[in-house]
Amino acid sequence: MEKLKDILKAVLPILLAVLGVLAIVYGELDDSPGLMLIGFVLIGIAIGINIRLVN
């Protein structure tokens, strides 16, 4: 169970960053600034999680 938790901690920021990039791209195509903001927030959260994991 501990190994699964470690894997999830490693994969979660990557998935959040990918989802954020996709939200930004789709928000640009659909001309939706709110969706682009959500994408930037998701990327910021992914960066924050990575910083917490490194420290």
Detailed description of the structure:
There is one protein chain. The longest helix has 28 residues, at 2-29. With 55 residues, the protein is mostly helical. The chain is 91% helix and 0% strand. The two termini are 23 Å apart. The model has no long low-confidence stretch (mean pLDDT 93). The chain has one domain (2-54). Helix 1 packs antiparallel against helix 2. The protein contains 2 helices and no strands.
Task: Outline the fold blueprint.
Layout: H1 2-29, H2 33-54
Helix-strand category:
mainly alpha
Percent of residues in helices: over 70%
- In total, the number of strands is 0
Radius of gyration: 13 Å
Q: Span from first to last CA?
A: 23 Å
Oligomeric nature of the chains: single chain
How many structural domains in the coordinates?
Answer: 1
Tally of DSSP helical segments: 2
Taking all residues together, what is the mean pLDDT?
A: 93
Largest beta-sheet characterization: none
The gross shape turns out to be elongated
How much of the sequence is in beta strands? under 5%
Poorly predicted ranges (pLDDT <50, ≥5 residues)? none
In N-to-C order, the SSE pattern is: HH
Describe the structure in brief:
It contains two helices and no strands.
Features:
55 residues, elongated, 91% helix, mainly alpha
